[in-house]
Design a protein that fits this description.
By secondary structure, the chain is mostly helical. The protein has 2 domains: about 80 residues, no CATH class; about 80 residues, no CATH class. Helices cover about 55% and strands about 10% of the residues. It is built from 7 helices and 3 strands; from the N terminus they run H-H-H-H-H-H-E-E-E-H. Strands 1-2-3 form a 3-stranded antiparallel sheet, covered by helices on one side. A hairpin with a 2-residue loop joins strand 2 and strand 3. The C terminus is likely disordered.
Length: about 180
């Protein structure tokens, strides 16, 4: 049986560790929950949130001058407890969705910046087509095209992998 977040990090421990840290309207528990999710996804947080997570034993102490860290075993258990009895595959897939959506929004922003446009997303769903459109870029699940991927997530992942493979070569040529 999966423990609850409160069984892994008690409310008393949260009060003791957080001290007078102020995150506005965000509860102290929410600070921990969101911090664990950030580090599980490979993001970083601010200094105070990082110190709180380290004191709880949820993330490893980063190298001096860095905020990059990874979850400890306790942090992994805490992450698992946030999702209850869901399978590991479904948890990992949910965590990837944020990066997928960030990727799509960054592609939109790059397109708009390059061409001075203000394209926005439009999802078209009718009796024979589901289409996610953005200007001239289309992810199309039209029923007459049998050679695509069965999932929009898979299609997005394929494009992201392709761009990651090509990105280092592109950087060498542009001087960055």
């Amino acid at each position: 049986m999966v423990e609850t977040p409160e069984e892994i990090v008690s409310d008393e421990e949260i009060e003791r560790v957080h001290g007078y840290a102020n995150f506005g309207d965000m509860t102290k528990r929410r600070v921990v929950d969101e911090g664990v999710l950030k580090y599980a996804l490979g993001y970083t947080s601010g200094h105070t949130q990082l110190c709180i997570l380290v004191k709880h034993g949820l993330v490893r102490k980063p190298q001096i001058g860095s905020y990059k860290s990874t979850l400890t075993r306790k942090g992994q258990l805490y992450l698992r407890s946030l999702f209850g009895p869901a399978s590991i595959d479904s948890i990992l897939n949910e965590l990837k969705d944020g990066k997928r959506l960030d990727f799509l929004d960054s592609m939109n922003a790059a397109l708009n910046k390059k061409y001075g446009t203000t394209y926005r997303w439009k999802l078209i769903v009718n009796h024979d087509v589901i289409r996610l459109m953005l200007g001239r870029l289309v992810v199309d699940l039209h029923d007459s095209e049998a050679n695509g991927l069965p999932s929009c997530r898979g299609a997005i992942d394929e494009v992201m992998r392709d761009l990651d493979i090509r990105r280092p070569a592109a950087r060498q040529g542009d001087g960055s």
